[in-house]
Specification:
Blueprint lengths: L7 H8 L4 E2 L11 E7 L2 E8 L4 E8 L4 E6 L4 E7 L2 E9 L2 E6 L5 E6 L4
Antiparallel strand pairs: 1-2, 2-3, 3-4, 4-5, 6-7, 7-8, 8-9
Length: about 120
């Protein structure tokens, strides 16, 4: 099954910021983009290359907490809206996914399910 194609407007709406573009002359889908968001004491840098579905997430707080994640060729990246909460779902394959929400606060959850 082919993954859904994430659209530029979905990321703009989700992050509510214009991305930094690696190449200002390339279409967004074949570009490398970085969405940088500061919410209170927490900062998020979400980098994505939509065409090949490579991404990097860097989450930091002013109290010294830091989380970095990098993945190449993730299975799918899609936006899901449920109960008025938008979640960016990053399907890593092998029953593992990341769930990123921006409102009411930045939240990142790594969900994994192993069947024995």
């Amino acid at each position: 099954m082919e993954p859904n194609r994430l659209e530029e407007w979905q990321l703009l709406s989700f992050f509510e910021v214009e991305p930094e573009r690696f190449d200002a002359h390339e279409d967004w889908f074949v570009n490398d983009l970085a969405y940088v968001v500061q919410r209170g004491r927490v900062s998020l840098r979400f980098e994505i290359a939509p065409y090949c579905r490579d991404l990097r997430i860097s989450l930091k707080s002013e109290d010294g907490f830091s989380y970095d994640f990098k993945a190449l060729g993730v299975r799918d990246v899609r936006l899901v809206s449920e109960n008025h909460v938008e979640t960016l779902v990053i399907d890593l394959g092998d029953s593992s996914s990341l769930l990123l929400t921006m409102r009411p606060a930045i939240s990142l959850i790594h969900r994994s399910c192993t069947v024995i």
